[in-house]
Every structure is written in structure tokens, then in C-alpha cells.
Amino acid sequence: MTTLKWSEVYYKPLNLYAYSGTADGLSVGDIKIDFDKPVNFEDRNDEVSIDALMKSAFWLRQISSDSCQPQLAYHVFSATHRPSYLETYFPLVKSLDKDSRHHFHETITKVLLHLGFELQLLKLARVSTQGTWSSSTSTLKSILNYPNDNIFVDCIRVNPAIAYLVAGHIVELFFFRQDFLDRLLQSKIHILLYTDQDSFKADGGVAGGCYNPERGCVQLVVSRLFEGFNQPTPGVFPFLHEFGHMLDFFDAGTAKHELTSSGWLPGMRPSDGEIYSPEARKTFIAGKRLEMQCYDRQVENPDGTDPLPIGHPYVFQSNSEFIAGYLEMFFRNPHYFAAQNPDLFDGFAQLFRQDPRHYWASDFPFYIEQNRAFYHSGQRPRPSGLKLETD
Ligand SMILES: [Zn+2]
After folding, report:
1. Which listed residue, of 65, 170, 380, 387, carries a Cα 20 to 30 Å from 187's Cα?
2. 308-322 burial, b if ≥16 CB within 10 A, otherwise e?
3. How far is the CA of 219 from the centre of ligand 1 (A)?
4. Which domains, ranges and CATH numbers included, belong to the chain?
5. pTM to 2 decimal places
6. According to the model, what pLDDT value does residue 131 have?
7. pLDDT for 332-390, tens place per residue?
8. Which residues surround ligand 1, an ion (CB under 5 A)?
């Protein structure tokens, strides 16, 4: 038996080693796991079957051509179906009492069962070379027992663990705004995940992930769901960024996904009806105005002196990037965000009825450092593409 301390290993990727067509063993970080004996987590008083862990790791490795290597926490959840193992992906859960945690998981189940939640996993036939299936594609076909050439499957059915993770991120965002979640589900929450980068590109995916207004869906390579979680405190969060674009394009008043960016989050426009919050709109505008002023000052004179904008020049390209980028920073560096721009922070906090500072001991420093480094570099940022009030 391999005995591990959960609190020290949950965020480390689980690897298959000495792989030669069949998997020979598993390792977590540099710890090898005894084959054919269960893994014991001493600080959780729990045992997990090695076969189930192996199956989970092997499945993802096969379908993703090795590009997707999730953390132990994901695989243990996938092997045991015990939701508490996945909670480290949702920092909010730390602040919830027992009943609320239970409600959190119930809400995830509700999303998964809702017809308005559509999550698909794609591997496109046309990425195979010379019209024949690449070996990983034929493996996928056999694993999924999928008869057709275009592999386009219901992720909730073929891999409920990934679906649970995605739904959990959505529930974390809307845990205190069930009304927002209901409006989105009333329309549709459509997410397309891709097994690998080639499939993503072949299906029109842009950059590292994107929101596609024509199809009304988020497009993301599956490995990107896991990339920010290789340390005890979560980091980059591409899924939330792309989901932020979806919110920007969503008209909460009509419950429709529009073809153009609105520049608002749901609840910020009078036309949003019952969920409209004039207070959130007011503080959002005041906060966005301050960010634009700080940014324009750097465009005029790139001297890198405070007050600097919180966001990187990338998010000043358009109103939609502003929403997506600041939403991500609200949930990853809330302390810095709130100190730099209390109004803008309040706008988000009022809208989502939560303050991530309560469950976030210290900020994820990368976004802060990277963004400040740009303004300190002396480069002149491009003129902003933002508008203050877009309706
Ligand atoms: Zn973006």
C-alpha cells in the first residue's frame, strides 16, 4: 500500500510511467505508487483503488495524445465519485459551512442534469493524417465505442468527472446568484472542449481559447481546464476568462446570446429586468472610468508610475476583453484588485454577492506582477478600445 498525505499531494499531476502500450505504474510528483495495492490518504482516512486511478489517467492520456495531465485531486474524484475530492478546484467552498457545501454539490448536479447545459468533447476526424485515423483517434473511437468518423461526444456521458469540474466552476461563480444561473440555463450554456490543440484549431478555435459568438459557445482545449491547478493555491483560469466573454455577449433581458459584445455583465443593464442592480452598474462605471484613466495616462506618458491600471494592455483592447480579464482577476487577485480600485471591485462583489477576499488568503501574484512589469518596461501601450457606457 502507498500511504500519502492528501494535503501535500492533491495538486500534483498524476503520471503514468514506463508506459509501453499498457501502463506499468503511476507516480505523483516523484513518489511512485505501488502497483496492485490501494492508495491510502492518511489525513483523510480513505483508500482509493489503484485500478480506478490508472483507468482515469490512461483514458485522458489516450484521448488527449498525452497533452492533458490533471492533478491527483481530479483523478481521485474520477475514481471514487466522491465530490469532496474535487473541492480544491473551487476555492469558494473553503468558506462554506456543511449545509452550503452540500447545496454547492447539489447545484452542480442540477446544472449537469439541465437540458440548457451542453458540454461536448471533440476530436475531429479531419485532423487525422492522409485520411486515415491517427492511432490516438482510433483508440478514442474504440474507448468511446463511437461508430462515426466525426467524434463529437456528450462529455457529461463519456466523462462525468470533467463535466462535474466544468459545472463546478460555473456554480462557484453563481453560487449566490442562482437567478443568473437560471437565466443562462434558460438560454443555453454551451461549452466545447477539444481533446488536443489540432482539433481545437481545425474546429475554428482561436488563440488559447475563445468564445464563438456565432455558435454561442466557449471553445477550449481540455488540458487548459487543469493548467492553473499545479500548486496549492489555484492560478491561471482560462475557462473563467472565456466564460466571461459569454456573459458579455449574453443579453439577460431576453435570455439570448447576442452576436455583439455588450460591455456589461448580466444585471448591469436596466433591460435585464428583475436581476438589474443599479448600484452594481454605478460602481462598475466609476471603477471602469478609473481604470481607463490610469491606462490612458500610460498611453500618453508610459512612465510606469502609480496609479497603474490593474489589467494588462491586452484587456484594454475591447469592452469584452475588459469584462473577461477583470472577472478573472476578481477571482484570483482580489486583494490587489480591491486596494487599487475599490469601486470596480464593489461592482463585481455586488453583482456576484460574494467577496473572494474572504476565502482567498493571498493573491495569485502572476497576474499582478506580469501586468505591472509591462507598465514598468517603458513600452507605450496601444490606445484603449474601451467605451465607458455602451448603451
Ligand atoms: Zn479574451
Report:
1. 387
2. bbbbbbebbbbbbbb
3. 12
4. 2-87 (no CATH), 90-225 (no CATH), 270-376 (3.40.390)
5. 0.93
6. 42
7. 999 999 999 999 999 999 999 999 999 999 999 999 999 999 999 999 999 999 999 76
8. 321, 324
